[in-house]
Specification:
299 residues; alpha+beta; seven-stranded antiparallel β-sheet; 37% helix; 20% strand; binds adenosine-5'-triphosphate; binds magnesium ion
Length: 299
């Protein structure tokens, strides 16, 4: 690139390994929190599921999708998130280390940056870290099976953890006793314990806990309050009080609550530009329905 780089030392570049991801394949980066069992304890996470922590993870994943190139979707649960890069991506000439390290560092810095938005009464006690790996999937079937595998993992762990923590929190068992009680039990047995002992229908547990979080790109319209409604601040005042812009889906705008410009009663809102944003869903991605509803993802 410059004259200085062309030195007699330049040959050491040839020691760099080629980690180009195979052409035309789906590239997945999976990040996982390092030692989050301890991190959850130290930061008083609610057991078995801390919604603040899950929401923060999703905020970080949305940042990764927005800041990096070519991510078509993401799936997250517990302390992990998987990012799927489009088949034809040529970002960093498909070098695995670039995909992985950009994702991991963007995610980790976002986790710290947004911490206070989610944990208002809990200080961040030490800097968290995330490991990363890259896996290349050669077909639509294998990438779908990869995502199904992660969602099945979410289900199995969450069913176990839901009963495990009920036994501890409600029946006052020790962790060792709860573990012993659950040894060798099948899914049906766990559902039965939840229902008969705690009157819990597992299927009514929050979808975010049962299904994890799917992030896909959706076209959103940016809704901005009318300029005339905003009181002009003094130059010395901070602009913090200004109402934040909110995003509403096109579908929502078309529905009766929010009307597009022109039809707006009382001039409540002004619709500005359309933006594509990563939107969170907590739906099943194991069956065909999701893929039939979103054929563009694996185009
Ligand atoms: P490693 O460094 O090998 O990944 P780990 O302690 O992070 O070790 P994991 O298998 O990744 O082990 O499990 C993550 C752990 O973090 C879970 O078992 C759980 O205890 C905790 N955890 C993560 N997210 C949450 C959450 N939202 N609510 C409650 N606990 C959580
Ligand atoms: P890439 O994402 O490809 O690495 P880049 O913009 O980071 O793009 P680099 O070749 O890594 O490109 O160069 C880093 C640039 O950051 C430098 O060219 C310089 O402009 C700026 N920079 C980094 N550190 C300093 C510093 N301490 N003081 C001033 N400028 C700096
Ligand atoms: Mg540099
Ligand atoms: Mg692990
Ligand atoms: Mg972990
Ligand atoms: Mg994990
Ligand atoms: Mg640089």
């Amino acid at each position: 690139r410059n004259v200085m780089a062309k030195s007699k030392f330049e040959y050491v570049r040839d020691f760099e390994a080629d980690d180009t991801c195979l052409a035309h394949c789906w590239v997945v980066v999976r990040l996982d929190g390092r030692n989050f069992h301890r991190f959850a304890e130290k930061h008083n996470f609610t057991k078995p599921n801390d919604s603040r922590a899950l929401d923060l993870m999703t905020r970080c994943a949305q940042t990764v999708m927005t800041e990096l190139e070519d991510i078509v979707m993401a799936y997250g649960q517990s302390d992990e998130y998987s990012f799927v890069f489009k088949r034809k991506s040529n970002w960093f000439r498909r070098r695995a280390s670039k995909f992985m390290t950009n994702a991991a560092s963007q995610f980790a810095s976002s986790y710290v940056f947004y911490w206070k938005d989610y944990f208002k009464d809990q200080d961040l006690l030490y800097p968290p870290a995330f490991d990363g790996r890259v896996v290349v999937y050669p077909s639509n079937q294998t990438i779908k099976d990869y995502l199904s595998w992660r969602q099945a993992d979410c289900h199995v762990n969450n069913l176990y953890n839901t009963v495990f923590w009920m036994l501890i929190q409600r029946s006052k068992l020790t962790p060792a006793q709860a573990q012993e009680r659950l040894r060798g039990t099948l899914a049906a047995d766990k559902n039965e314990i939840l229902f008969s002992e705690y009157n819990i229908n597992y299927n009514n547990e929050p979808p975010m806990f049962r299904k994890g979080t799917v992030l896909i790109w959706k076209k959103m319209r940016k809704i901005k309050p009318l300029r005339s409604e905003i009181i002009c601040p003094k130059a010395s005042e901070k602009l913090d009080f200004l109402p934040k812009c909110s995003y509403k889906s096109i579908k929502e705008i078309k529905s009766k609550e929010i009307k597009p410009p022109g039809e707006t009663e009382g001039k409540q809102v002004e619709v500005t530009r359309i933006r594509t944003k990563p939107v969170a869903l907590h739906c099943d991605i194991i069956g065909d329905t999701f893929w039939k509803e979103h054929p563009e993802i694996l185009e």
